Input
Amino acid sequence: MSKSKDIPIPDQVSGYSQVRLDVDLTSGKIENSTLSNEFVRDWIGGYGFGAKILWDELKPGVDPLGPENVFVWSIGPFPSTILPTSSKYGVFAKSPLTGMFGMAISSGSVGAQARRAGINTIVVKGKASEPVYLVVDDDDYYLVPCEKTVWGKGNFETEELLREEFQDQRLAVMSIGPSGEHMSRMGCITNDRNRQAGRTGMGGVMGSKNLKAICFRGTQSTKVAQPVEFYKLAKKLIKVANGPATAKYRDLGTPAGLTSYNKLGMMPTRNYREGTWDAIDNGTFTGDTLNQDWVVKKVACSQCSIACDHLARVPKTHPEYPNLVASIDVEMCYSFGTNMGTSDWPTIFKCVQLCDDLGIDAISGGVTASMAAELFDLGLITKKDLGYELPFGSTVNLVKFTEEMCLGKGFAGKIFGDGCEQAGIRLEEKGIKNASYYGMHIKGLEMPAFDLHGMTSFAVGESVSIRGACHLRNGAYGLDAKGTFDRFGYEKPLERGKKIKATEDVYGVIDSYIICKFTRGIYENDAEMAKVYELVTGIPHTEESILRRGEAIVNLSKCFNIREGWTRADDHPPEKFFKEAHTKGPAKGVTLKEEGYQTILSGYYEARGWDKETGIPTDETLKNLGLDFVIGKLKPAAAKGGKK
Amino acid sequence: MAARRKKIHQFIIVDPELCTGCETCESVCSFVHDGEFNQINTRIHRVRIEPVFNIALACQKCEDAPCIRSCPEKALDKAEDGSILVDDEKCNGCGFCIRACDFGVITLHLDSQKALVCDLCENMKEDFIDLEVGKREPQCIFVCPKEAISLKNVEQIGEETRIDAIRRLFGNVEEFGSK
Output
C-alpha cells in the first residue's frame, strides 16, 4: 500500500485545523477555506503544502520580489501537542536569492500559537499599498497599517511593541527588519528574538509585499485521534529526546562540531581556503570554550525537550558590547568566525545579533562578509571602496561591514547587501574580473558549514539540494564524516546516489510534519515516525507510504525548479573546490575532480528515476509518485529562473 | 492523611537554572485534565523574561490563602494537604481569586469559566494514569524534559538552602577535620 490514494481517510481527521487563509494584499481581502482531507493526507504539512500550493498557484517566471510572487506560511498536524519540537512553521515562495524554490523553517512559539488560533496555512498574494502587518487572533483576521509604528524598526523592538500593543507577552510575532523592508535578497524572518526562518530570502519576499509581520494568538484546543496511545508514545519520546540521542545538541550544542569537523578538514576557514584552523587546534575557538566562557543559558522553543538555543552573554565590563546576548550555533561560529578568520567571540555575537535584529540570514551574511574579506585580501576591493579595511580576522570593521550590509548602506550595503552571487555580478560590472569566483554559494544560496574539498558525496548532496547550498534538505555530509564511502574518491556512484536520495526523502517527511531534525534520532525507526502521525491525525500512513510522500514532495519542488529554468549546470559546487586545494590538514592538496563529480551526480539522478543526463524526472517516475499533474508542464518558463 | 502532610504542605517548585521555558508543562496540564491540548487551560504557567530568564509557577498553597478569602461565593476551600479546592457548583467565574493571588497562578478555564488551580493532578483523567505508577501524580513533573519541576515543601527548601550556605561558608565539608 504505497500509493497515497490507497490510504483510507477516517471520518474525523485530527491534529490539522485544515483552515487555509487567503490574504490578497493588493485588495486587502481575506478569505478562509478548508483544506480537504485528501490534500492533508497527500501533502502531510509544511514543506508538502508549500510545494503543492506554489506549483498550483505561482505563475512560472515571475519576479520573486514582485507582487506576483506567492508567499505561503504553513504548519503540519503537530503544533501545540507535546510531540517534541512540534512548534515549527515553514515559509515558502519563489526565492529572490536562487530564483527557484525558496523555503525556510523556524520554531519558537509561532507554530503552537498559530494552531491555537486555528490556522493551518496562509497564502499571501499581491502587494499592500502601504506597510501593514497581519493579525490572526482566533478567527479574527485583519491587516493593520504600520508605517508610523513598527515599519523601520528592528525585529526585537517590533516584537516588543506588538506584544505591548496587544497587552499580551505570549503573542507570537514573526517579522522582518529593515533588511527585509528594503527587500534584501538575504532578508530573514525573526520570531521569539532568536529563531529565524533565515534562508533563501523569505524576509525579502515579505518586504516586497509591504508585509512587516504576522501576529498570532488563539484560544482553541487541539484534539488528537488516539489520546491515550499518543500520550504513552509522547512521554517516551520526550524522555528519549533528553537522552544520548540528542546530547550533542543539548550539551555543547552544535558548536561541538567545530572540533570534530576541523579534525576531518571539513571546517571552512578563510572563505574555504583551508578546512582546518589553528584557533580550533589550540582550543581558542571551540564549543568547549564557547560554553565555558560565554554561554549563560540554554532555552527551548515551545514544546521542545532539547533546548538547543545557546545564549551567550558578553560581560558588562566589555568596552564595546556590554551585556549583549546572542543566540549561537555552529553555523554562526562558521559564517562570522572560522570563515571570516575571526576568533573574537564578542565580535561574532555582535554580528549575529545585528543579522537577527536588522533581519538578514546570518549564514548568508557571514559568508558574504567572508567573500568581501578575501577580495580585500587580494586587493580586488580596497579601503578606498569600503571606507575601512576588512582583512580576515577583522573585529570592529566586520561589525561595521555587517551593519552596512544589513541596512543596504555604503559600499558594503550596495555591493554585498544581496548576497554573494549579486555581489559578484555587481563587482564584475564595475570591471573587477572574476569577482564571482570568490562567492561561495550554490544556486545563489550561500554555503553552510561544510568544506567540500574532501567530501565527494556531500559535494553532490549539497549541490542537488532544492533550495540551493543546504545541509538540511539532505544529510549526505554524514556519508563523508562517517566514511560510508571514500570521501576523496568517486566510486559506487549509484549506491551513493541511493543514500543521498534516502536522506533527502526522509527529510521531506520531517520538513512536512514539521519537526526538528535534531529529533531524527529519537524515533526507533521510520515506522514509529509514521505511527505518531497516525496517532495524532487518524490517517493510517505507513512507513512506506509516508516516505513515498516525502519522495513525491522532493520531486514536486524539483519540478518547480525545472519550470523556473533549472538545468544540470545548476547542481554544481563553486569552482574553488575544483581549482584550489588546502595547504594543510586531512584534505591537503585535494581538489574535487569534475569528471568524478559528474559521475556521482548522474548516479544520484539515476537513483531518483530522473533522466541520467538531464536530471529531469521521467514521466514514469512522476506517475509512480502520483505526480501525473506535472507531466507536460516542465517546460522552462523563463531564462535562468526569472531572477531579476 | 499522615500527620506530616497535614502540617507541611508540598507544592510545585521550578528551578530557573534548569527551566528552558519549553511550555511542555502547560501543554500536558491541559491534556491530562481535559483530553485535549490548550496551554491557556493550564494550572502551571511558564514565565519568560527576555533575554535569558525562564521559570514556571503553580499554586504555592499559601497558609492564609488570599484566593479563599477573596471568593464572594465561598467556592474555594483548602484540602488537608494544603491544595486549594474549587467547588465548580459554587464558582461563578467572577475572577476575584485571580486578582487576589500574589503569584498569578489561578486562571479561568476557557470553556467552563471555572477557576483553575494546581491540584497536583488529583483530577487528571483516569485513562492517562501510568499503569506502572498506578496512581495520580503531577504529570508536569513527569514530562519536564529537564527535571526542573519538583514537589517540595518549605522545610525541604530551607534545608537545601542551609546545606548550600554551609558549603559556601566552610568549603569542602566532607573533608572537615582530615589532616
